């Protein structure tokens, strides 16, 4: 019997200046704190995050990465809608 896999989350942050940052993590709260304290992505070191806008859970890292790619292809005005139930 295999152990259940730990899910990954796709998350969307609002950063200073009103920009968005998308990423994946196993623990969104912990990842947000890393971004907040300058230990996350280069983008969030230059544009500090203000809050987590949305998050969606995926069963695997691969699924989360695919969703992140699809999200990043969307225009800014459609990114939040990606997280709605009808996304």
Automatic annotation (TrEMBL):
PROSITE patterns: GIY_YIG. Residues 6-81 form the GIY-YIG domain. This is GIY-YIG nuclease family protein. The lineage of its organism: Bacteria, Pseudomonadati, Pseudomonadota, Betaproteobacteria, Burkholderiales. Belongs to the UPF0213 family. It comes from the Bacteria. InterPro entries: GIY-YIG_endonuc, GIY-YIG_endonuc_sf, UPF0213_domain.
